[in-house]
């Protein structure tokens, strides 16, 4: 219990600073737009996470504050840390190994940042833990139809929440089928029937959901695919994606990550082969999907479903080392204390710095809208820059219009039903980006309010943020001038006049 309490405390200490009372970040605002439309459209907003969108819509029906929106994600992130530790202990690993696995999950820079983002990634990790735990539980009685039924329910539910967990579910099903078909002490039919049922449901799900990824989003994944065009490119791009994968857990890039991954795989297989396959085979599935340019690998947040298995494999490798001479003679209690001190020290140094340079990039668009309304004069126009479109629509007094199109990275954009408002519909990397629409909109008006979010460099590179000013620069070139500025947390508005 002491180890579990320590891990929870460290996880909370690193995640609580990301909680905020300010407005939602733009990438969190667009999932939250599920509250501003009907259920059918809400489930389409998340592309491959319809269940998460439905759950978020339900949750935000009881409260709209940013803290309320962040709470389930933060809780899922902390629960994943504890779940990995408990799972490691349940499969027979010692306290030191379990503490190592939990420490990896608690300190992971990706896990820390996305523990307070209103996204599905924390639930990807928690879902992976649940799938691994149910699979191991089923191994003990591979002929139990009740346990098979639970695995089917968990696999379908986690996949509905987020398609990212499908590789873990597929491996869990396959490993349990292998155990069940070799079982001589009970019925074998569940091991054949349940995976077939799951395969059928997965085929339907793939047809309805998995093919819906917008082309602009897929193009952003280009660096997270494996290029199999030749041996050299295959090795180079495989190394790159594995480097980025491990950097999400180790805080650094370089050869260390892939080398450690190989050592972990060898150590885990030497300790217990079937459990190592269960933990690491999802990574193999992910690599095949990345080679087929279907799913990104090494994208940080998109790898969250792989982290629990990698942490469990690392725990097995640690256990294998410490049951081998001369390490087996080391006393367990001092070693456990040394690992605990190391986790705390890392949290207080590298972990704390990571939190400080990666603040939650929220923008208080509701406050900015209120300020603009108080100072608006008849005939004024409002132009909303692309990065501001989703939080603006979320905070608007009027229900926004949602326009679905594969031209947009998220699969949709928003527009305003108000005649005095123009939302620039596309970002500069999307088809249809038209900053000159602001000039056409401003024609015949005396004053224009130009709304921009001010995201920190840790989230948005300066060159990308500069594109938010494109429409305003065109207005200035057309003879407009800035006469006033309104500032709120994470955003500002310029009042322009001819």
- Helix coverage percent of residues? 55-70%
- The backbone outline, from C-alpha atoms, is elongated
Count helical runs.
22
Task: State the strand order across the main sheet.
Answer: 4-1-5-7-6
Mean of pLDDT: 92
Radius of gyration: 25 Å
Q: What is the oligomer described by this structure?
A: single chain
Span from first to last CA?
68 Å
Total number of beta strands: 7
- SSE pattern: HHHHHHHHHHHHHHHHHHEHEEEHEHHEE
Beta-strand proportion: 5-15%
Number of domains: 2
Please mark out the parts with pLDDT under 50 across 5 or more consecutive residues, or reply none.
none
SSE map:
Layout lengths: L1 H14 L10 H7 L6 H7 L4 H11 L5 H25 L4 H13 L1 H5 L7 H20 L4 H17 L4 H16 L7 H22 L4 H6 L10 H20 L5 H16 L1 H19 L15 H15 L10 H26 L7 H11 L5 E4 L4 H7 L5 E4 L7 E4 L5 E3 L13 H6 L4 E7 L8 H5 L3 H8 L3 E8 L2 E7 L1
Parallel strand pairs: 1-4, 1-5
Antiparallel strand pairs: 2-3, 5-7, 6-7
């Amino acid at each position: 219990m002491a180890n579990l309490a320590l891990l929870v405390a460290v996880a909370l200490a690193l995640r609580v600073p990301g909680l905020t009372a300010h407005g939602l970040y733009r990438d969190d605002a667009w999932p939250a737009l599920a509250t501003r439309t009907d259920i059918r459209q809400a489930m389409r907003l998340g592309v491959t996470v319809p269940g998460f969108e439905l759950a978020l819509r339900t949750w935000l029906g009881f409260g709209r504050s940013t803290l309320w929106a962040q709470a389930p994600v933060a809780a899922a992130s902390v629960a994943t840390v504890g779940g990995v530790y408990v799972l490691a202990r349940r499969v027979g690993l010692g306290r030191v190994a379990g503490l190592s696995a939990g420490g990896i999950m608690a300190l992971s820079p990706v896990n820390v940042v996305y523990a307070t983002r209103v996204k599905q990634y924390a639930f990807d990790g928690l879902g992976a833990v649940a799938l691994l735990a149910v699979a191991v539980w089923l191994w003990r009685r591979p002929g139990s139809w009740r346990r098979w039924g639970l695995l089917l329910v968990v696999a379908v539910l986690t996949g509905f929440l987020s398609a990212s967990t499908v590789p873990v579910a597929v491996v869990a099903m396959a490993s349990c089928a292998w155990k069940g078909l070799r079982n001589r002490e009970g019925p074998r039919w569940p091991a054949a029937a349940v995976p077939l049922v799951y395969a059928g449901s997965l085929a339907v799900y793939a047809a309805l959901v998995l093919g819906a990824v917008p082309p602009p989003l897929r193009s952003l994944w280009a660096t997270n695919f494996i290029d199999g065009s030749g041996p050299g490119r295959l090795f180079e791009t495989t190394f790159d994606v594995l480097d980025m994968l491990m950097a999400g857990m180790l805080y650094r890039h370089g050869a260390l990550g892939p080398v450690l991954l190989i050592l972990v795989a060898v150590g885990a297989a030497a300790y217990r082969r079937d459990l190592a396959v269960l933990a690491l085979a999802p990574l193999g599935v992910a690599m095949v999907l990345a080679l087929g340019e279907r799913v990104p690998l090494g994208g940080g947040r998109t790898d969250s479903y792989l982290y629990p298995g990698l942490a469990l494999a690392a725990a097995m490798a640690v256990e294998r080392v410490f049951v081998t001479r001369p390490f087996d003679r080391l006393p367990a209690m001092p070693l456990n204390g040394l690992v605990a001190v190391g986790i705390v020290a890392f949290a207080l140094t590298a972990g704390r710095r990571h939190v400080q340079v990666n603040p939650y990039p929220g923008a208080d668009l509701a406050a900015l809208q209120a300020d603009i309304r108080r100072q608006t004069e008849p005939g004024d126009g409002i132009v909303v820059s692309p990065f501001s479109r989703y939080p603006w629509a979320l905070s608007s007094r009027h229900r926004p219009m949602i326009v679905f199109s594969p031209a947009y990275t998220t699969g949709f954009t928003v527009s305003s039903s108000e005649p005095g408002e123009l939302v620039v519909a596309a970002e500069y990397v999307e088809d249809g980006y038209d900053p000159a629409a602001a000039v056409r909109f401003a024609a015949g008006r005396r004053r224009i309010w130009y709304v921009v979010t001010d995201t920190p460099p840790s989230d948005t590179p300066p060159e990308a943020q500069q594109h938010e000013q494109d429409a305003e620069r065109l207005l200035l070139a057309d003879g407009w001038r800035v006469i006033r500025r309104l500032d709120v947390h994470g955003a500002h508005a310029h009042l322009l006049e001819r």
